[in-house]
């Protein structure tokens, strides 16, 4: 279940009903897939062969097609980030810079965990959405956000796209975002 941290106040929201209500008010789509559908091995595997990525997509095929159908998504893949990822630091530099996308950014976490930091309404400011296996999030098109790993430094996620370049991050220079609050 996702947990929220509001950066300006350091307030944490962890009760499921309050998390769902908060994300709904912030126009962040949040859903939940059954993380137990994966084999025990794949729940803890962060270096994946193409066959293992295909196995993850096959495991969640009905959830992916249902979500894709409702949101008009046509392409999906699996991304894995861990210390074993050859260009991890380069990728994180891109993910950790405030950016926007030209389509809603849909990510379904299937293993590990990560944080999306999203620019909320003016009264809230930036807030963290701490995600774990089973959590599915959609960051709306053009909404400033960034992503970082948590202390375990590893995650596997299904990414859904409308356009192949839908993942392209457009830098967003936000004077309201204070680096010190990373
Ligand atoms: C865990 S998905 C990798 C992060 C990403 O694609 C992105 O755009 C984050 O904002
Ligand atoms: Fe993004
Ligand atoms: Ni919890």
UniProtKB/TrEMBL annotation:
Pfam families: ARD (PF03079). GO terms for molecular function: acireductone dioxygenase (Ni2+-requiring) activity; acireductone dioxygenase [iron(II)-requiring] activity; iron ion binding; nickel cation binding. Ni(2+) binds at residues 99, 101, 105, 145. Catalyzes 2 different reactions between oxygene and the acireductone 1,2-dihydroxy-3-keto-5-methylthiopentene (DHK-MTPene) depending upon the metal bound in the active site. Fe-containing acireductone dioxygenase (Fe-ARD) produces formate and 2-keto-4-methylthiobutyrate (KMTB), the alpha-ketoacid precursor of methionine in the methionine recycle pathway. Ni-containing acireductone dioxygenase (Ni-ARD) produces methylthiopropionate, carbon monoxide and formate, and does not lie on the methionine recycle pathway. The record marks 104 as: May play a role in transmitting local conformational changes. Keywords: Amino-acid biosynthesis, Dioxygenase, Iron, Metal-binding, Methionine biosynthesis, Nickel, Oxidoreductase. The lineage of its organism: Bacteria, Bacillati, Bacillota, Bacilli, Bacillales. It is an enzyme of class 1 (oxidoreductase). The record marks 107 as: Important to generate the dianion. One of its GO terms (biological process) is L-methionine salvage from methylthioadenosine. It comes from the Bacteria. Belongs to the acireductone dioxygenase (ARD) family. Transmembrane segments: none annotated. CDD domains: cupin_ARD. Its EC number is 1.13.11.54, 1.13.11.53. This is Acireductone dioxygenase. Fe(2+) binds at residues 99, 101, 105, 145. It comes from Cohnella lupini.
């Amino acid at each position: 279940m996702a947990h929220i941290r509001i950066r300006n106040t350091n307030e944490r929201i962890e009760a499921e009903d309050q998390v769902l209500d908060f994300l709904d008010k912030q126009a962040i789509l949040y859903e939940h897939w059954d993380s137990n559908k994966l084999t025990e091995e794949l729940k803890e595997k962060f270096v994946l062969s193409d066959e293992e990525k295909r196995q993850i997509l096959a495991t969640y095929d009905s959830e992916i097609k249902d979500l894709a159908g409702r949101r008009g998504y046509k392409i999906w893949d699996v991304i894995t980030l861990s210390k074993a990822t050859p260009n991890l630091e380069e990728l994180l530099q891109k993910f950790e810079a405030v950016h926007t996308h030209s389509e809603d950014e849909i990510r379904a976490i299937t293993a590990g965990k990560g944080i999306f930091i999203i620019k909320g309404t003016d009264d809230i400011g930036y807030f963290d959405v701490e995600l774990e296996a089973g959590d599915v999030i959609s960051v709306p098109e053009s909404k400033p956000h960034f992503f970082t790993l948590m202390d375990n430094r590893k995650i596997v996620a299904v990414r859904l796209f409308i356009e192949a370049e839908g993942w392209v991050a457009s830098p967003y220079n936000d004077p309201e975002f204070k680096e010190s609050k990373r």
